[in-house]
């Protein structure tokens, strides 16, 4: 309904704009020939159009063209591989044009920290993504669209809920415990842990990723995870351009997980019970009345199992989810003022029942020249998001529980209730048999949750140009983020949960206010062959965070969901803040436009750092040599451009706890004389030396354009060592503490990045290919005085030790199952071992199976990542696809603990249906015999839990049709385009879960741990862009 | 005009500088921190309270003392939640240095000792009222003596700390021999005995008293085999007139009747949501019973041996042990489990129980039996037997075939009188009965080396200089 109303409004707006009068001028016919400046050969297929007008054509085979244009119009000649050329008509009827070969790839302007540079002048490693690469993608969070597109940037979509922020890692993992999120800089405003779903992707002009430390060092203690620079669209001088886009789409589950159906499950249940009963001394044929309760089997399972049709709980949980996306933007201006205005609305339902994401965005970017020297500007955006977040809870969330629920039950019982624990249902007879049901609807329909977020982001600036070469600029930035979460769980959840819970409600509110004041002074001058650019600046930034949390229970009924109807049982609030002062300096120097040097330094002071280490310096230096500017190369026609670069920089990671350096007091209670008394004790040790983690990174790079830039190649090698890693260093407990937050430990990331862009076909049929490859090798170099390994147990175990990458999976290796007693006796084994139990490898070959046989069994970090984009266009059609691959990474499937062996009545993967039954019928030889309990090592963390996470993903597929200008001639439109887009079409993988990118935990030590994460959906959209 | 603008801009930027100091010195808003604490008497009272609170962990149903029941012939474990194998390793005498429960016992103990030592160390640098300071000191030294006494009997030689240490210093601290540990224990308890108030002098139930310090000191002397010293100090408690046996044994755990004249040192709990509640009842209830408790730990299920240890007609058996329960379908499930901390009236909210039951660390009956042991005097044994109406030692009705010596009679009496109260394993060790009794009861072969817990692996990973106990 809402969408419809919005649409009506937009159509009204369009209609209104159509009534605006059009100017009429004298139209003349202009003709001529277009040739190449290099060799004078005619250029066929050159696009010729008038600026701001609707007329246009292409040159014929001999480079000739004829076009109708106003006598005062300007003709624009554009052709791939050549510089776009503009020629005023000035009443002429014959205009011949010579087009120069374009170093387009190198002349584009790239946004870097506190400024811009020509791409050809870059001395560091910066990747740039243009609006065209993201604008028709369906992702609500633009970072989702970058997967596979940028070398050195790993974008992992850990959960597929609408708008869910992916994990973005730039050049590996340089930290163990601190934050891994890159710094986001929105129109110059640096934001830590920023949620990019607050920014409408349609408003983004470009994204630059500062990968090497020399580029990021200007952001000092915030730069070690890399920097993502986001630039929003600006108004341009000239005729007002209005763009309207509308797209409609649907999301679907890409791959369902193969689970046992009711019949397979019943057999599995019977076998597990009988196997255990036999171990307890019984016979499989014994009736229930001679068995203790836990060994009993529902009689119908044996007498008439076919009566159970059951339910596929995934089909109940998932749905095809529609989405609508509408955007309107207005861009224009005159000599003094440029304006970009945009409004957008997107409504995306999620594939998990009832999950939903609605976003309204408004943006206004205005710049105004007060005089030729003084410019002011204001970027303002408002974002309102209302979402229903179901299915992202991981453990105990709807996705995980749907896979665990017994598949024998109907969706609704005969009373219309959800579950068999309904005392009035005939299904209640199954209660004594230990079956499990967490009905999806009990979590999605019997729990009502809402999240509302409102963000306003404002950046204002004044810049003042004086004494010719100086520019002083002041930026004032502020961001306000409000978040409200409310939840109400119906009493009893219609018997759909494992037990009958009373109604509870929750109400949480948070408020984050961040501001930044920044002053910079820039000096720019060219002296003969020398050109110099100097930047000095300082900034102040502060963030305040407040939240309140409340819960209530004892609701009389489920009518009112706000807390007033119940009895509050907890109420709490919390606040924290941080502040930062920074000084920055940068020198860019170039000689003969051949030798380029950049040096930066930043000094950061932060409230997070300990009193004895409050300030840090972050220097960098980089050099580049444009080899192609040398005469000997200039004469080599097939080399269009060639540049070598080298840089070194130091950056910091300040994503450490706000008050980590200060010893905190813990609160506790005791009882004296029958009264509760409060107690306070020191709960953490203070550390006045606490500081940022420091990364020093060397980067050596090469950029080369060959054959008129038909082939463009970029390669980088980097070696990055992060020191002073912030670790909760285990300390002897005799101190009274088990750990102290200390700057200790070192980790190295080194690797290669390759980018290859080729223009395979450039004529009528155009074909470009973009290929990128990333190899990163991560190694822990030190972990403090004793290099004690760090073990993290989250269902599975990771071990982080010196000489290995961070967070190796660490457990037993199962070499299939023992087929018979003889095999058991011939191999070391756990004392409980029986035929059909796993053959646990005696890793240390000491003849016994014990905890010392645990070993490294995988890692979530890939050996390499690949991305391949192909763009095709012919006439008005364009087509592109993106392939993305990750190779050599493993994944911890925490659902294993419930779905890969019989566990308390839970369902199992269909992949384990072929389990060991007997020596004659040993199954697949890998899946051990099911029991009710496993006295051996079956359930211990082993390679049984760890799966190959390699994949090949068809990340994107897009087909577009752009109406030619001639077709639009008699319409008021100047652009009209239709497209169809598919994101995440398919993923090829052996993973038993939904998607090998799935994960429910964050942080370097918890990478790749899937425990019922929200599947990453396929999104199919069709859309239309209209400009006038 | 230009100059004017420049001045404005410079002025604006200077303004920014002037407010910048506030940006870096930010103290926690919502977290109390040590920067302005440990100064006043009120601060120290809060710190002392937090030190007492460690009793809830040390003596809690999942604490180190509770696990000694698993090591004894009284308790066992069937199904439980959590890391089952590490927990069952106690009853199976299958402990390894990387056992997570052993690790937790160690860590919790030293965290507790640090809370105590923090008070004692911080008291050195403030000037409080002398009496207040000596009572705070005595309370802390009482707890420190008690903890070290328990720990030395569990782990043997220990890192000995009489004050707080920095991370740097901590690497120098190795295990001190048992006699040095006992020296600290004795000096702490002697100081406590001298400076704590009598039970009758304190208005606050739960505060450590002179009697408690002397009673524990008596236990220390017994453990060291110094029966004369034990006899003297225990007689001081007995003759103080501060304590007596209450009439009805089972009333000792009546939640309406806590802190009786028999309770020499009781750990205090208060039932109810949001209170420091007791969870012995739920922790000691059969796992997943779903009928008598909502949460159930399955810890310290009672052995047949204990059930059989009671004499015919001993009312303490029924007061101490449940024989089973009715499940949700009304079926009787036979299983022996503790009854002493039963709280069937507890309100079950938010999925758990919030019970009231105190835990008695030291009872007057224990004092009497210790005295009987130290003085070799059956009269004090018989005082305990008289309460429950059993024939006195040395009279014809006494089962002297089974307990022919006074030593065995006292051991038996302690077994049934103090059943499941975390004494048995220490008693067996003190009386040199541990190896035969436990070997038979648990059907395991154990040696002297099994009677100390391993030093946790992580402790030795951090500091390889710290020696492991023999046998691990």
TrEMBL record, chain A:
InterPro entries: Beta-barrel_TonB, Beta-barrel_TonB_sf, CarboxyPept-like_regulatory, Plug_dom, Plug_dom_sf, TonB-dep_OMP_SusC/RagA, TonB-dep_OMP_SusC/RagA_CS, TonB-dep_rcpt-like
Membrane topology: Multi-pass membrane protein
Entry annotated with the keyword Ribosomal protein: no
Positions of region (Disordered): 826-846
Domain of life: Bacteria
Family per record: Belongs to the TonB-dependent receptor family.
Protein name, per record: TonB-dependent receptor
From TrEMBL, chain B:
Any one Pfam family match given in the protein's UniProt record, by short name: SusD-like_3
Residue ranges constituting the SusD-like N-terminal domain according to the UniProt record: 66-222
Bilayer-spanning residue ranges: none
Main localization category: membrane
Keywords assigned by UniProt, alphabetized: Cell outer membrane, Membrane, Signal
The protein, known as: RagB/SusD family nutrient uptake outer membrane protein
Record carries keyword Cell membrane: no
Family of this protein: Belongs to the SusD family.
Entry superkingdom: Bacteria
Keyword Signal: yes
Domain RagB/SusD: 338-472
Location within or outside the cell: Cell outer membrane
InterPro entries linked to this entry: SusD-like_N, SusD_RagB_dom, TPR-like_helical_dom_sf
């Amino acid at each position: 309904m809402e969408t419809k109303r919005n649409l009506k409004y937009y159509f009204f707006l369009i209609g209104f704009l159509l009534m605006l009068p059009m100017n009429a001028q004298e139209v003349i016919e202009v003709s001529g020939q277009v040739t190449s400046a290099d060799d004078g050969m005619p250029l066929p297929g050159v696009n010729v159009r008038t600026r701001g007008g609707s007329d246009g054509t292409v040159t014929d085979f001999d480079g000739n063209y004829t076009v109708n244009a106003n006598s005062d119009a300007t003709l624009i000649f554009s052709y791939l591989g050549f510089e776009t050329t503009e020629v005023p008509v000035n009443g002429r009827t014959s205009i011949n044009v010579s087009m120069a070969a374009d170093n387009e790839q190198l002349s584009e302007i790239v946004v870097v920290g506190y400024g811009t540079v020509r791409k050809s002048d870059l001395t560091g490693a910066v990747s740039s993504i243009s609006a065209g690469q993201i604008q028709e993608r369906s992702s609500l969070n633009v970072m989702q669209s970058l997967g596979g597109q940028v070398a050195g940037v790993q974008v992992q979509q850990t959960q597929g809920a609408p708008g869910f922020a992916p994990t973005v890692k730039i050049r590996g993992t340089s930290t163990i415990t601190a934050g891994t999120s890159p710094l986001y800089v929105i129109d110059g405003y640096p934001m830590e842990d920023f949620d990019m779903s607050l920014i409408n992707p349609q408003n983004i002009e470009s994204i630059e990723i500062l990968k090497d430390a020399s580029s990021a060092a200007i952001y000092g203690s915030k730069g070690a995870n890399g920097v993502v620079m986001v630039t929003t669209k600006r108004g341009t001088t000239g005729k007002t351009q209005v763009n309207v886009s509308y797209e409609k789409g649907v999301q679907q589950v890409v791959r369902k997980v193969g689970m046992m159906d009711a019949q397979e499950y019943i057999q599995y249940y019977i076998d597990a019970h009988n196997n255990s009963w036999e171990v307890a001394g019984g016979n499989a044929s014994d009736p229930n009345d001679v068995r203790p309760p836990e060994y009993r089997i529902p009689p119908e399972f044996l007498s008439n199992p076919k009566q159970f049709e059951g339910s596929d709980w995934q089909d109940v949980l998932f749905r095809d989810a529609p989405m609508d996306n509408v955007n309107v933007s207005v861009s224009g201006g005159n000599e003094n003022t440029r304006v970009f205005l945009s409004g957008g609305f997107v409504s995306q339902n999620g594939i998990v029942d009832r999950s939903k994401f609605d976003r309204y965005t408004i943006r206004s970017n205005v710049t105004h020249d007060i005089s030729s020297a003084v410019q002011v500007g204001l970027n303002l955006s408002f974002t309102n998001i209302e979402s229903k977040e179901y299915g992202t809870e991981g453990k105990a969330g709807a996705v995980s529980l749907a896979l665990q629920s017994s598949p024998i039950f109907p969706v609704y019982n005969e009373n219309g209730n959800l579950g068999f624990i309904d005392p009035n249902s005939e299904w209640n007879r199954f209660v004594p048999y230990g079956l499990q049901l967490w009905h999806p609807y009990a979590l999605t329909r019997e729990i009502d949750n809402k999240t509302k977020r409102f963000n306003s982001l404002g950046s204002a600036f004044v810049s003042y140009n004086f004494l010719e070469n100086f520019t002083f600029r002041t930026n004032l930035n502020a961001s306000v983020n409000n978040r409200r979460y409310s939840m109400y769980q119906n009493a009893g959840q219609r018997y759909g949960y494992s037990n009958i819970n009373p109604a509870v409600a929750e109400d949480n509110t948070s408020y984050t206010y961040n501001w930044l004041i920044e002053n910079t002074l820039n000096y720019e001058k060219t002296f003969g062959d020398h050109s110099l650019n100097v930047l000095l600046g300082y900034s102040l930034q502060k963030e305040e965070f407040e939240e309140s949390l409340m819960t209530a229970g004892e609701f009389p009924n489920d009518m009112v969901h706000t807390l007033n109807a119940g009895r509050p049982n907890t109420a709490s609030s919390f606040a924290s803040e941080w502040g930062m002062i920074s000084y920055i300096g940068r020198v860019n120097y170039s000689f003969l436009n051949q030798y380029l040097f950049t040096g930066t330094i930043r000094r950061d002071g932060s409230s997070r750092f300990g009193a004895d280490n409050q300030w840090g310096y972050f220097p960098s230096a980089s050099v580049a040599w444009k080899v192609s500017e040398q005469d000997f190369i200039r004469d080599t026609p097939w080399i269009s451009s060639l540049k070598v670069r080298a840089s070194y920089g130091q950056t910091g990671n300040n994503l450490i706890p706000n008050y980590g350096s200060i010893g905190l007091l813990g609160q506790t209670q005791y009882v004296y004389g029958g009264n509760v008394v409060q107690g306070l004790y020191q709960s953490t040790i203070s550390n006045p030396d606490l500081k940022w983690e420091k990364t020093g990174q060397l980067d050596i790079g090469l950029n080369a354009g060959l054959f008129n830039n038909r082939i463009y190649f970029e390669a980088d090698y980097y070696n990055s060592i992060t020191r002073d890693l912030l670790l909760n260093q285990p300390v002897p407990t005799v101190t009274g503490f088990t750990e102290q937050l200390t700057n200790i430990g070192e980790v190295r990331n080194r690797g290669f990045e390759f980018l290859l862009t080729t223009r395979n076909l450039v004529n009528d049929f155009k074909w470009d290919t973009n290929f990128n490859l990333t190899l990163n090798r991560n190694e822990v170099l030190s972990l403090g005085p004793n290099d004690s390994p760090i073990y993290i147990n989250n269902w599975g175990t990771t071990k982080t030790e010196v000489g290995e990458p961070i967070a190796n999976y660490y457990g037993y290796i199962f070499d299939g199952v023992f087929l018979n007693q003889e095999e058991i006796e011939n191999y070391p084994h756990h004392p409980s071992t029986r035929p059909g139990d796993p053959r646990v490898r005696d890793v240390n070959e000491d003849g016994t199976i014990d905890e010392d046989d645990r070993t490294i069994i995988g890692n979530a970090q890939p050996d390499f990542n690949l991305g391949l984009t192909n763009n095709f266009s012919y006439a008005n059609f364009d087509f592109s696809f993106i392939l993305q691959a990750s190779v050599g990474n493993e994944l911890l499937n925490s659902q294993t603990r419930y779905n890969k062996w019989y566990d308390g009545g839970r369902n199992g993967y269909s992949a384990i249906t072929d389990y060991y039954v007997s020596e004659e019928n040993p199954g697949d030889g890998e899946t051990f015999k099911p029991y009710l309990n496993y006295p051996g090592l079956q359930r211990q963390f082993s390679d049984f839990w760890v799966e190959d996470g390699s994949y090949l993903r068809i990340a994107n597929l897009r087909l577009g049709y752009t109406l030619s200008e001639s077709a639009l001639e008699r319409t008021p439109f100047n652009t009209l385009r239709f497209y169809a887009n598919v994101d995440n079409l398919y993923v090829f993988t052996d993973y038993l879960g939904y998607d090998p990118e799935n994960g429910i935990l964050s942080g370097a030590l918890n990478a790749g741990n899937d425990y019922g994460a929200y599947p990453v959906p396929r999104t199919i959209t069709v859309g239309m862009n209209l400009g006038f | 005009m230009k100059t004017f603008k420049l001045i404005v801009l410079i002025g604006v930027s200077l303004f920014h500088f002037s407010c910048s100091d506030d940006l870096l010195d930010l103290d926690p808003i919502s977290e109390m921190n040590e920067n302005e604490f440990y100064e006043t008497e009120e601060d120290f009272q809060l710190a002392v309270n937090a030190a007492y609170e460690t009793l809830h962990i040390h003596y809690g149903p999942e604490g180190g003392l509770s696990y000694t029941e698993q090591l004894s012939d009284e308790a066992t474990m069937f199904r439980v939640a959590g890391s089952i194998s590490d927990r069952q390793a106690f009853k199976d005498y299958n402990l390894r240095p990387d056992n997570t429960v052993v690790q937790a016992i160690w860590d919790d103990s030293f965290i507790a000792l640090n809370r105590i030592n923090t008070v004692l160390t911080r008291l050195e640098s403030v000037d409080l009222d002398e009496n207040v300071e000596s009572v705070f000191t005595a309370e802390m030294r009482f707890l420190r003596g008690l903890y070290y006494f328990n720990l030395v009997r569990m782990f043997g030689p220990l890192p000995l700390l009489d004050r707080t240490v920095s991370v740097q210093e901590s690497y120098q601290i190795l295990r001190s021999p048992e006699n040095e540990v006992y020296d600290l224990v004795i000096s702490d308890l002697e100081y406590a005995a001298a400076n704590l108030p009598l039970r009758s002098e304190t208005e606050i139930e739960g505060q450590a008293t002179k009697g408690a310090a002397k009673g524990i000191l008596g236990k220390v002397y017994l453990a060291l085999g110094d029966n004369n010293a034990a006899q003297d100090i225990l007689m001081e408690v007995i003759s103080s007139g501060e304590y007596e046996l209450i009439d009805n044994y089972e009333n000792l755990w009546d939640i309406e009747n806590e802190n009786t004249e028999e309770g020499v040192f009781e750990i205090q709990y208060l039932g109810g949501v949001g209170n420091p509640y007791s969870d012995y009842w739920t922790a000691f209830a059969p796992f997943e019973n779903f009928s008598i408790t909502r949460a159930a730990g399955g810890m310290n299920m009672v052995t047949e041996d204990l059930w059989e240890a009671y004499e015919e007609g001993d009312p303490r058996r029924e007061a101490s042990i449940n024989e089973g329960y009715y499940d949700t379908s009304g079926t009787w499930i036979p299983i022996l489990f503790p009854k002493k901390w039963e709280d069937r009236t507890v309100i079950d909210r938010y999925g758990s129980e919030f019970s009231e039951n105190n835990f008695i660390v030291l009872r007057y009956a224990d004092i009497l039996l210790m005295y009987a042991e130290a003085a070799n005097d059956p009269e004090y044994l018989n005082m305990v037997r008289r309460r429950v109406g059993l024939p006195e030692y040395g009279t014809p009705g006494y089962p002297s075939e089974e307990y022919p010596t006074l030593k065995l009679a006292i051991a038996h009496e302690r077994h049934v009188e103090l059943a499941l109260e975390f004494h048995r394993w220490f008693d067996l060790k003190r009386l040199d009965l541990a190896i035969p009794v436990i070997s038979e009861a648990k059907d395991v072969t154990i040696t002297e080396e099994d009677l100390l817990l391993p030093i946790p692996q992580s402790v030795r990973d951090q500091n390889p200089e710290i020696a492991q106990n023999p046998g691990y």
